Amino acid sequence: MSRSVITVKITGPAGAGIKSSGVLFSNFLLAHGLNLRDYSEYPSLVRGGHNTYQVSFSEDELLAPHYNVDILFSLMPKHWQTHESELTADSLVFAEDGKNLLPLAELSKQFGSSIYSNTICLGVAVFILGLDKDVCQKIVSDQFGAESPNNPAFLVGYDYAKNNYSAPLSLRAPKARGNLLYEGNDAFGWGFIQGGGNFYAAYPMTPSSGALHFLASKQEKYNIKVIHPEDEIACASLAVGATYAGARAATGTSGGGFALMTENVSLCGAAELGTLFYLVSRPGPATGLPTWTGQGDLLFAIYSGHGEFTKIVLAPGSQAESFEFAATALNLAAKFNVPTILLSDKFIAESGSSLEDLSQKQVEIIKSTKAVPGTPGGEYMANSYEHDDEGFATEDAAIIRQKVEARLAKAVEIVKVAPEAKLFGNSSSANLIVTWGSPTSIILEALRLDTTLDYAVLQIRTVCPLNPELKNIINKFKNITVIENNATSQLTTLLKSHFDFNPGRTILKYDGRPFFPEELISSLRGTVTNVTKQS
Predict the structure, then answer these.
(1) Per-residue model confidence as pLDDT tens digits over 32-63
(2) What b/e string do you get for 227-259 counting C-beta neighbours within 10 Å, with b at 16 or more?
(3) Where do the domains of the chain lie, and which CATH numbers do they carry?
(4) Apex 533 CA angle, 473 and 423, nearest 5
């Protein structure tokens, strides 16, 4: 391959199959043994608007999608101009009005619909990149069926490219690694299943809906119960009730739905029930930006629910950690009988990465020792009132103090077994980046791209309860930078509330878009950047 990372992007209106064709192209790449990371954007529209799907891929390690686009397909005239800032002098733009003319309207006429334009573009991409045509054509046929017009549409695109363009890039011959493409929602779903989860209740709310759809499709094969109730209050109530009955239960939503669930978070705290809440953030307040990304729910998750009680909040930094943390969260919830929140965001949940087959990945399952209804000789009263050790309501001052302290004391033991913070990069550097969640992989990709940047990176993976040892790690570094996808640097506020923490710089982005490695390189170097705010 003539360059280490290539990024391909396809754009067009909603309803034109932008993401479906993009995912199909990613499967072409996986069949050639390539590593990939994808990212999609779409407005909250069923038809029209401007949708995109992009995938960055490499023969080598790849941690995040890139900003600069090498090959762009625009299904509609004037769509590609929106992305001129992402193009370089060497970028190829295929469109009716692009630098590389691609007469999609004319080519798709023979199939009676412009809907096949996306598959025509796939054929062009396969030729331009030197992919194995037969391997890719079989994937198209397997996806749509042997009689589908998508099969000749693919060949029309390939033949047109062969007759009209050169093939400037050439990838190696197919060498499948067996990896599959997983979005974060799917990875969470597999972690839930492999971790012994057996009850999931959710009301569709972007960007968490993918987990509901995924688990619903697996309930018969894996003997799990998936319910779509009338609202988020019912979802949380059902999940908490299922936990009381002995299920390894979870519910999923985004910020607005989680606002309705917080009374049940408190119920879990009082009744000592380990329900898992899968919170996939999008920008707020209120409806906010339903189909975009952000990290504005950190403090909301940590301080959710009224009263004082211990909860667990885990923050995966990738699709792989979404799988890992789903199983870990179920285990922690069962072991400590406290509400547990898996805090993700749209970027992780609806973006994909190439991973080993998660359906075959085994994890440890730790079961709860709490008695459940029907246990011979067992008894447990799940009381929402303050109560004594037998579960009977009480207003006795001494017992109240004892119960409050017992609930809070769980944090000490949780810290010992919850996912530890990870330190990447040059641990002897004077410069430290502190972050959490989705920016982690993007920061690491930026440092991989520009090896002259001298930084260590601290990823905080358990954001509640916070490990006091973090202070000792951070204090070893002279210059501290915090990077996160929100406007107020909520991680800074959190760390300040636990110990003396004064970062020299914060790099924040809060326009609904994730960071990209290229802009972080510019920001860390102090040059022009697309980052929304830097202080």
Answers:
(1) 999 999 999 999 888 888 999 999 999 889 99
(2) bebeebebbbbbbbbbbbebbbbbbbbbbbbbb
(3) 6-164 (3.40.920.10), 181-417 (3.40.50.970), 422-534 (3.40.50.920)
(4) 20
